[in-house]
Design a protein that fits this description.
By secondary structure, the chain is of the alpha/beta class. The protein has 21 helices and 29 strands. The N and C termini lie far apart (75 Å). Bound molecules: adenosine-5'-diphosphate. Adenosine-5'-diphosphate binds next to α8 and α10. It catalyses: ATP + protein L-histidine = ADP + protein N-phospho-L-histidine. Its EC number is 2.7.13.3. Pfam families: HATPase_c, HisKA, Response_reg.
Length: 660
């Protein structure tokens, strides 16, 4: 292999020395040079300013000029490659001065014939290579960082207009005008929701790329979580006529340590894909636990009988934006981001995802995650394979009454609420035991108690068991039904003993729900809703006027209008400010604000700084930050803001806020 040619600048006023140096350099066996020779300071500096050479040999004595000056001026002029100083004789002081001024080495001219000369040049070039790699790496990192910032910024910016699209569509769907265009509006709504999930995926990916995605580990009840995922996924599976089973052949640890949200995201993604790419047959999820090298892992496979993935594409579908180029998958929509995110999340959780597939026959995704130590927790076999009937398939039974549904998982709340409202019931929601307690007490004080409460057992803030203690000790005898995965023997008896009226097993299906409703509620006489929908439930609840005065600070006029409309719909008195300046002016008009909703990025102010400013005159006031990206928690704490709403804002979020 012919050696790579390096460009060498030789600054030497003595022709004999130049020839000598050149001859030795040309004798190097592994290095080849293209030599530029200059004899004075002026020419040397001109060449050095070009910064084209890979190395420079610089004579210390350039006639009347001092090589050290050339050295310093050359570096100042922008020469970044290594410089080796050539000196007439050994002089420690001169050598040190050369190194101090930025030379990488020095050579006494009598050493030009020695191996020391060749070595010095080789080292200098190697150093340059390392430095170049370092600079290239830094450049690439900076580019990546700016790309990630751009992505984060973009998805943030897109959230604000999405607020208007989603908000107005929801509002229209509930209005008389919208009744005749329900199917068109639901297309707009579905597409906006799809856009939102794309944005969330992009945000996840940019966080992963910037290494900013942090896991939130906590103890998770595996049975309850799997039951929830099963309940959610049976809807699309049943819609396509597929059978979904989730089971474990061997007992599973009922408590694991993981990031519940992220783990759920991975499971839902793999199961949704399996459903999406399967036209008939089954989707089967199997789980098992393993201990390897003193670490506990949870394994799961998602097996489908769908279109499968061609062998040559198996490797790439875990990369962002990769989809199998196939008519069917193209018809299915999607962005090709889901699996890339799953892959990253699972590896963050200490595991891996892998795939086997036979094109035309089906796919099998296998993944595992670390679970923390599960040696001391109870184990149980899980099995969910009943084919739950969806609300629309259940006979037209209807009930009357007011039901409170309490679950920390939004989708499950909505799912159960959807089934109940489909049966003609008036539904309200709570996210945890504490909210349930407040709502039940308020309802009783307003002489409009709930007819039935359905409450999840495992919830943050206050769990179901704690809530029932308080509820019953307040003398409330409303029927309260626990929703639980209840796989362990004796759980049911224990819950009844705690004060629950009954227990309904998760995953909840309409059949078992109807058995419970039939026991505690009166059959309905009222006509059923034409199209039961969560939004309608909320709207019908929300007409009582409230005394709340909310200041909404949002610079985007459309987003401000729809948020205000939704709030007014909840009976709130809303005042809008579009800038920091306007905010201060409006704020000073009254001193009985209930809340301030503050956009993070305003044209003339930063929401957090503005909040601090308002705080000076209203230390107790509740302030809520609105933003398209998660704000820095330390900065939020500094501005004394504890609540934050991620855009796009919807009715459910605002309802929770106003009622909360
Ligand atoms: P999306 O589904 O949004 O396109 P994913 O990253 O989740 O993105 O999946 C990437 C691609 O992998 C899909 O578009 C599809 O072509 C293929 N794929 C994923 N899961 C399956 C499956 N179970 N069966 C067949 N193809 C699949």
């Amino acid at each position: 292999m012919s050696p790579l040619v390096s460009r060498l600048l030789l600054v030497e006023d003595d022709e004999d020395d130049y020839i000598l140096a050149r001859d030795y350099i040309e004798q190097f066996s592994t290095l080849a040079f293209e030599i530029d020779w200059v004899t004075n300071q002026q020419d040397a500096l001109a060449k050095m300013a070009e910064n084209r050479h890979d190395i420079c040999l610089l004579d210390y004595q350039l006639g009347a000029e001092n090589g050290l000056t050339v050295l310093k001026l050359g570096i100042e002029a922008g020469f970044t490659s290594p410089i080796i100083m050539l000196t007439g004789q050994a002089d420690e002081e001169v050598d040190m001065a050369a190194l101090d001024a930025g030379a990488v080495d020095y050579i006494i001219k009598s050493e030009l014939s020695s191996s020391r000369f060749a070595r010095a040049i080789r080292y200098a070039l190697a150093r340059r290579e390392i430095e170049k790699e370092r600079v290239d790496r830094l450049k690439a990192e900076a580019e990546n960082r700016s790309k990630d910032r751009f992505l984060a910024h973009l998805s943030h910016e897109l959230r604000t207009p999405l607020t208007s699209i989603l908000g107005y569509t929801e509002l229209l769907m509930d209005s008389k005008v919208g009744q005749s265009a329900q199917s068109e509006l639901s297309i707009v709504l579905n597409n906006s929701k799809h856009l939102l999930s794309l944005l969330n995926n992009m945000l996840d990916l940019s966080k992963i790329a910037a290494d900013k995605l942090e896991l939130n580990l906590s103890e998770v009840n595996l049975d309850a979580m799997i039951a929830d995922v099963y309940a959610l996924m049976t809807i699309p599976a049943t819609d396509k006529g597929l059978t979904l089973t989730v089971s474990s052949a061997t007992p599973l640890p009922l408590k694991i340590t993981t990031d519940a949200t992220r783990f759920r995201q991975v499971l839902i993604n793999l199961i949704s894909n399996a459903i999406k790419f399967t036209e008939k047959g089954n989707v089967d999820v199997n789980l098992w636990s393993e201990n390897r090298d003193e670490t506990d892992y949870l394994y799961f496979t998602v097996v489908d009988t769908g279109i499968g993935i061609p062998k040559n594409q198996i490797g790439c579908i875990f990369k962002p934006f990769e989809q199998v180029a196939d008519v069917v998958s193209r018809n299915q929509g999607g962005s090709g981001l889901g699996l890339a995110i799953c892959n990253e999340l699972v590896s963050k959780m200490g595991g891996e995802v892998s795939l086997t597939s036979e094109f035309g026959k089906g796919s099998c995704f296998t993944a595992y995650i670390e679970t923390g130590d599960v040696s001391q927790v109870p184990y149980e076999v899980l099995k969910f394979d009943s084919k739950p009937l969806m609300a629309k398939e259940v006979n037209n039974q209807s009930y009357q009454g007011k039901v409170l549904v309490v679950d920390d998982v939004n989708d499950i709340r909505m799912l159960v609420g959807h089934m109940l409202s489909g049966m003609g019931l008036h539904v309200e929601y709570g996210k945890n035991g504490l909210e349930a307690l407040d709502k039940i007490n308020d309802a009783r004080n307003e002489s409009a108690p709930y007819d039935l409460v359905l409450i999840d057992i495992h919830m943050p803030v206050m769990d179901g068991s704690e809530a029932i203690k308080h509820i019953r000790s307040n003398g409330i005898d409303t029927p309260i039904v626990a929703m639980t995965a209840a796989t362990m023997k004796g759980v049911r008896d224990q819950l009844i003993y705690q004060g629950f009226t009954n227990v309904i097993e998760k995953p909840i299906n309409p059949e078992s729900l109807m058995v419970v409703l039939g026991t505690y509620l009166q059959p309905g006489t009222a006509e059923k809703r034409l199209s039961p929908d969560d939004n309608q439930i909320e709207l019908s609840n929300t007409t009582e006027p409230s005394e709340q005065h909310i200041l909404l600070v949002e610079d985007d006029a459309d987003a401000a209008d729809i948020t205000a409309l939704l709030l007014e719909n909840l009976g709130v008195d809303v005042h809008i400010a579009h800038s920091g300046e306007e905010c201060l002016a409006v704020f000073s008009q009254r001193n009985d604000w209930s809340k301030v909703l503050m956009d993070l990025n305003l044209p003339d102010a930063n929401g957090l700084k503005l909040a601090k400013e308002l705080r000076k005159n209203a230390p107790q006031l509740e302030m809520v930050l609105l933003s398209g990206e998660e704000p820095d928690s330390a900065e939020m704490a500094d501005a004394d803001i504890s609540k934050f709403i991620l855009k796009p804002i919807n009715k459910q979020v605002l309802t929770d806020l106003v009622k909360g």
